# Entry
Amino acid sequence: MKNEERDQIRKKIREKIGEMTSKIKDYKELSRPVSPENAIGRISRMEAINNKAVFEAALREAEDRLKKLKEAESKVELPDFGRCVRCKDDIPLGRLMIMPESTRCVRCARL
# Structure
């Protein structure tokens, strides 16, 4: 992998880390407990509790992706960065720009 490609990926990783950090902050706010003293109807309260569960799941996914992005950022300078951990082929730059935390090529990720 060329140095300019590593620079592009590093920049994209930092951009994605910023996005995930912002999303995590929003999801934490949206997944706060639903207060029982809120004067909302029974159906509305059930919807609020359901929405809370959806945001909690999104929060877990965002936290997991942030962890993977930080791990990728720490490995971007390693010689094996950008190689599939399974087949050892190069992961296409386009895939790394979309998902910089990818450790597998598309073919191996489908398996």
